[in-house]
Design goal:
This protein is of the alpha/beta class. It folds into 3 domains: 11-160, P-loop containing nucleotide triphosphate hydrolases (Rossmann fold); 166-203; 220-374, no CATH class. It is built from 17 helices and 5 strands. It has helices spanning 11-21, 40-52, 62-69, 87-97, 119-130, 150-153, 166-177, 181-191, 195-203, 205-215, 217-220, 224-260, 263-266, 273-315, 327-336, 339-358, 363-374, and strands at residues 29-33, 75-78, 107-111, 136-142, 157-160. Strand 3 (107-111), helix 5 (119-130) and strand 4 (136-142) form a beta-alpha-beta unit. Helix 8 crosses helix 9, helix 12 packs antiparallel against helix 17 (363-374) and helix 16 runs antiparallel to helix 17.
């Protein structure tokens, strides 16, 4: 199995990266772009493995295995659980970039979520990209080229990933997860091409149930009370899911901190423990906030898919709906709404998303406002 095996529906990208790994068209700085779930980080890591491999990505050698596992000495990945990547993290990476690789090939530095770099972090990164050492390769990942500073993206070779088709995702799930064709088809459509989301839907019934609850909301927003209840429930459910994801990690980090300062063994707290604990709690709080926003954001995209289905059905577009399983609800929305209203509803969802992600509006407030805007018009048939 080659390192490219998990890049779903990206044949042109694989060809270009394999060619570069073989020494044709190589560059010292790369920018991987693509919609969420398209696999831009996976593509960067696969490319890093190919650069470290004597056979340009065989998938079997020690270099490939360690790179894909995240333990290769010459491959560094910076990712953040916070809302932004700060200058200190980037400066540490820049210092690492100046070192010669341990092995005979490349020093590879991958920045996931490069769109989250602060202005000072971008400035620190720019000089390193402008003047790389001979055996250093930078790989940045972002949703679009516009999400990266102009002076940085102009110095990078662009790799654009696309959203894989539902058929490609379904085939991937059948091959790698061993799920039934019907479940793979559902997960592929419901994920809208997001590989990680498709895997979660295929593997976990609770994830499927949570999504079904979200996509059932539009048809139930018939009264002001229903809208307020929907906003409250969505806030609570997404918070619970986010807490479940971060809770175990938080506890493990706290235990590691206690152990490193000898709190467990000696039963007392050294002077240096308090500021370390404060810093950890601050980082965990930032991570929890981002995780909650990520879960809410995913739910908002599920809501958008329902109104897009309504637009597709009203327009007579061919093909299956994303939410084929609730076709009755989608038909009801078409009967009760105009195409223009459903377009406005999609815009209102994106407005709520922007309020939370960019303007720090509290999640409950943004969701309440959005749900009221999405309410079924008075006098519509139920």
């Amino acid at each position: 199995m080659s390192v490219w095996e998990n890049l779903v529906g990206q044949r042109a990208v694989i060809t270009a990266l394999r060619t570069a790994a073989e020494g044709r068209g190589m560059s010292h700085s790369w920018l991987f772009t693509g919609p969420p779930g398209s696999g831009r980080s996976n593509a960067a890591i696969a490319f890093a493995a190919a650069l470290q491999c004597e056979q340009a990505g065989c998938g079997e050698c020690h270099a490939c295995h360690t790179t894909l596992a995240g333990s290769h000495a010459d491959v560094s990945v910076i990712r953040t659980e916070k809302l932004s990547i700060g200058v200190d993290e980037v400066r540490d990476l820049v210092r690492r970039a100046a070192l010669a690789p341990v092995g005979r090939r490349w020093q590879v530095l991958i920045v996931e979520d490069a769109d989250r770099l602060t202005e000072s972090a971008c400035n620190a990164l720019l000089k390193a990209i402008e003047e790389p050492t001979d055996r250093t390769v930078w790989m940045l990942c972002a949703p679009t080229v516009e999400d990266v500073l102009t002076t940085i993206r102009s110095r990078c070779r662009l790799v654009s990933l696309t959203t894989p088709t539902a058929d490609d995702v379904a085939a991937f799930l059948v091959r790698t997860e061993g799920v039934a064709d019907a479940l793979a088809s559902y997960a592929a459509r419901a994920s809208q091409g997001h590989i990680g989301r498709a895997r979660a839907l295929a593997r976990d019934e609770a994830t499927r149930n949570r999504r079904r609850e979200v996509v059932s909301l539009p048809a139930r927003l018939t009264t002001l009370g229903a809208c307020m209840n929907a906003a409250t429930n969505l806030t609570e459910v997404t918070k619970e899911e986010a807490d479940a994801i971060t809770g175990e990690l938080d506890a493990r980090e706290k235990a590691d901190l206690d152990s490193s300062y000898g709190v467990v063994e000696r039963g007392r707290r050294p002077r240096e423990y308090a500021p370390a604990l404060t810093a950890l709690e601050k980082a965990q709080k930032a991570r929890a906030k981002r995780r909650h926003l990520d879960v809410v954001d995913r739910s908002l995209m599920d809501l958008v898919s329902v109104y897009r289905d309504a637009l597709a059905l009203a327009s007579g577009a061919p093909g299956r709906l994303v939410n084929e399983e609730i076709r009755g609800d989608v038909e009801q929305i078409v009967r009760n709404s105009s195409r223009e209203l459903n377009l406005r509803r999609i815009a209102w969802i994106f407005e709520a998303r922007e309020q939370m992600l960019d303007f720090n509006v509290p999640v409950p407030l943004a969701l309440e406002s959005m749900m009221v805007a999405l309410k079924v018009p008075a006098g519509s048939s139920r």
